[in-house]
Amino acid sequence: MNQLKSNKTKNSIILGLFIVLIGSILFWFPPVYKSVLSQDFELRNYSMQFVDWIFVGLIICFILFGEKNKLSTLNIKKINSESFSLGMALGGLSMIYIVIHKLFLASYFEFGFESFPQNDNLGIDTVGPEFIFVYGIFNVITAGVAEEVIYRGYATERLLMLKANKFLVFLLPLIAFVLMHYRKGFEHMILVIIVGTLFQLFYIKYRNLTITIIGHLLIDSLAYTSILIEHFK
């Protein structure tokens, strides 16, 4: 009986990983999500945020009803001085690379890759300030919390629970995380590879999703602030 329960749990985890890792890659390729979501700029961008939360909802269902497990297995732990400091350090290290990337590397990576899609948010100049404020906050929370739940708290943690090869534990969620950003262009994907690697290393070392959530919220909050400054200067 215990073995049967163990097999059911394992099968649920494998199915959940398939949906999260493969599904998140396939859905976010431009031909797919553009055919599914509205063509209206504002509605499409709001819908894109809701899709990430749908993946989070699926994850919760797999944990509660498939694994018969607790949501605490996502490793969202109570914030304390250590997790806050580590999260800020992770965000700080990421920001150092992001600044270097934007100042010295971005133009190099953009050259010669015209076949890659361009950032959909180029249309942000056509919308009013209400959208920028509301959507921006929603986007920061979605990126900082939902993406961390999907790729670190669930995908990485479940691979660890299955005792997968350490190389696969590190690489598979990172690949999915990077390809999910394919729609934003090649230059952005290079940035995500470096930053995503830092996040994977921190999560695997500390097994504390609170740390990566804090780091992710920090870098996206700063990015959102820079967009506001640029838009309203």
From TrEMBL:
Residue ranges of domain CAAX prenyl protease 2/Lysostaphin resistance protein A-like in the record: 132-221
Pfam families, alphabetized: Rce1-like (PF02517)
GO MF: hydrolase activity
Transmembrane segments: 12-30, 50-66, 86-111, 131-151, 163-182, 188-204
Top-level taxon in the UniProt lineage: Bacteria
UniProt keyword Isomerase, yes or no: no
Organism expressing this protein natively: Microcosmobacter mediterraneus
Protein name, entry field: CPBP family intramembrane glutamic endopeptidase
Keyword tags: Hydrolase, Membrane, Transmembrane, Transmembrane helix
